[in-house]
């Protein structure tokens, strides 16, 4: 009697003893036994064989997290599925075999992989390949790990001239690319790109500049701060070392430094003596300490700062002022007074006020 499962699908050749199955399915897999008897008195002869019906693989899919992944915070589970007789499962990343590690763990049947925590190096294309002796199929999933912003820095030209265009550039390591906000003295400038340009730099641009890099996915922001200004219509030099450090300060204008190693250097115009002439006593007393004092002033203005800072600082003094040299005595001919206006502008990256 024929099992209903095989009805209409079986052909038996009684002369040869062969059995033919039509339209086989996976359920036909199993062990088949044939029994041969010559007569009722003869012993039975049996033979066995195993049939494996393999279904072609199709519809392979690789799924992963739908939400954004953040470095060192998120975990990712990748699952590979398909239709058919799956015998072998292979995993690849960017065309190379994916191997287990402390952060990459495979399931027992290799149908899924867990990555925890995710890191930026884990970004890339993952593939799973399902195969059997008669067919194979694969699927891919692209994983993006978001991070940053970090290593934010401000850079600009080495030399600028007052009245010319100046461009400050803010850079950051970030995935996705960071958005930027530029502020001057705590107020937004309206510039939201990586570059901030000043078409004609002058004294109105003095103040503290801040660049904030913002990552909309990680919800993190990092800020680089510095100070920037314009100056007089003279050549002005911006000191930025090879590593982004302050390199020097520059004096501009027609100022002179008076005093003889007795105090902070000041910018002044030409002095006038008590009798209306040039104050020779003041200038003579200043000559001995002028070179050292200017050098000292330059070192203070160019104090080293962090690579994130971009500094252009300006000091302006105007109006009448009285100064005397260190060599002053009570004699009217040995003292002098000076009046005038001077402008000292130092431009350096990472400078600190002294």
TrEMBL record:
Signal peptide: none annotated. Residues 258-269 have a biased composition (Low complexity). Residues 43-146, 149-225 form the Ig-like domain. Residues 328-341 have a biased composition (Gly residues). Pfam families: I-set, Ig_3. InterPro entries: Ig-like_dom (IPR007110), Ig-like_dom_sf (IPR036179), Ig-like_fold (IPR013783), Ig_I-set (IPR013098), Ig_sub (IPR003599), Ig_sub2 (IPR003598), IgSF_CEA-related (IPR052598). Keywords: Disulfide bond, Glycoprotein, Immunoglobulin domain, Signal. It comes from the Eukaryota. PROSITE patterns: IG_LIKE. Residues 243-354 are annotated as: Disordered. Residues 288-299 have a biased composition (Basic and acidic residues). This is Carcinoembryonic antigen-related cell adhesion molecule 6-like. It comes from Chanos chanos. The lineage of its organism: Eukaryota, Metazoa, Chordata, Craniata, Vertebrata. The gene is LOC115821826.
């Amino acid at each position: 009697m024929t099992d209903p499962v095989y009805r209409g699908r079986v052909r038996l050749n009684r002369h040869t003893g062969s059995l033919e199955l039509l339209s086989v399915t996976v359920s036909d897999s199993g062990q088949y036994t044939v029994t041969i008897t010559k007569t009722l008195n003869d012993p039975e002869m049996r033979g066995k064989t195993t049939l494996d019906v393999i279904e072609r693989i199709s519809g392979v899919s690789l799924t992963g997290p739908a939400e954004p992944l953040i470095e060192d915070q998120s975990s990712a589970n990748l699952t590979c599925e398909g239709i058919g007789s799956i015998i072998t499962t292979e995993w690849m990343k960017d065309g190379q075999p994916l191997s287990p590690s402390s952060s990459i763990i495979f399931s027992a049947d290799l149908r899924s992989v867990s990555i925890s925590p995710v890191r930026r190096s884990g970004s890339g294309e993952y593939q799973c390949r399902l195969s059997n002796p008669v067919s194979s199929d694969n699927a891919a999933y692209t994983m993006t790990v978001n991070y940053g912003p970090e290593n934010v820095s401000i850079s600009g030209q080495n030399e600028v001239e007052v009245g010319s265009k100046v461009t400050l550039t803010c850079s950051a390591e970030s995935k996705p690319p960071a958005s930027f906000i530029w502020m001057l003295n705590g107020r937004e400038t309206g510039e939201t790109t990586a570059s901030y340009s000043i078409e004609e730099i002058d004294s109105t641009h003095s103040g503290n500049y801040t660049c904030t890099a913002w990552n909309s996915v990680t919800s993190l922001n990092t800020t680089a701060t510095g100070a920037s200004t314009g100056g007089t219509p003279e050549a002005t030099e911006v000191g930025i070392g090879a590593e982004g450090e302050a390199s020097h300060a520059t004096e501009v204008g027609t100022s002179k430094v008076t005093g003889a190693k007795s105090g902070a250097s000041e910018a002044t115009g030409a002095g006038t003596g008590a009798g209306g002439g040039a104050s020779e006593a003041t200038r003579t007393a200043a000559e001995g300490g002028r070179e050292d004092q200017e050098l000292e002033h330059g070192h203070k203005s160019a104090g080293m700062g962090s690579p994130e800072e971009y500094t252009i600082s300006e000091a302006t003094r105007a109006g009448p002022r009285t100064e005397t040299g260190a060599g002053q005595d009570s004699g009217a001919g040995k003292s002098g007074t000076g009046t005038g206006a001077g402008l000292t502008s130092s431009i350096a990256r990472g400078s600190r006020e002294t």
